[in-house]
Design a protein that fits this description.
Structural class: mainly alpha
Shape: rod-shaped
Number of helices: 6
Number of strands: 0
Distance between the termini: 132 Å
Order of helices and strands: HHHHHH
Largest sheet: none
């Protein structure tokens, strides 16, 4: 006799008790398996809670893993940057939202600076023709020449006037 209900098995077992030596009762054969399954489910639920719990940084572990880039070895191009970042920890105490805000603000500042630069170039077409690789020595020499020219021009005015 097979039954899912323990009470039904007990009733039948008692009724055929005279065959006791030939009767074996097996009940809840799956009970041990179901306990293990219940424990496994509980562990998985705990793991899910840990992965989904928001951290002080502002993201859950699951979100951090999803946003991270895999660095598979020391030869990986990003490994050295990652190591330096971990050692210096420049973002300590910051949350994800504050970092996102800093990145957005920086991007906006760069965009605004570029926009201002383009407006300045559009207003002053000669800027494009300027030498862009002047070092401080070249600049000082040019300033000295301009100063000499201004002084020379001032002397010419006083001598002709």
């Amino acid at each position: 006799m097979v039954s899912q209900k323990r009470a039904a098995l007990d009733v039948i077992y008692n009724r055929i008790s005279q065959l006791n030596s030939k009767v074996v009762i097996v009940h809840d054969a799956e009970k041990d398996k179901s306990r293990k399954i219940d424990r496994d489910i509980a562990e998985l639920e705990t793991l899910a809670q840990v992965l989904q719990k928001k951290r002080p940084f502002g993201l859950s572990l699951q979100q951090m893993y999803a946003r991270s880039k895999k660095i598979s070895s020391r030869e990986d191009p990003g490994y050295q940057d990652f190591r330096v970042f971990r050692e210096k920890d420049p973002c300590q105490g910051m949350t994800y939202d504050s970092l996102v805000s800093v990145v957005k603000d920086t991007a906006n500042e760069i965009a605004d600076s570029y926009y201002d630069f383009r407006k300045t170039i559009d207003k002053n077409k000669l800027i494009v023709k300027l030498k862009d690789n002047l070092d401080s020595i070249d600049i000082q020499e040019l300033l000295d020449k301009i100063e000499d020219e201004l002084q020379e021009g001032g002397r010419n005015k006083t001598s002709s006037g």
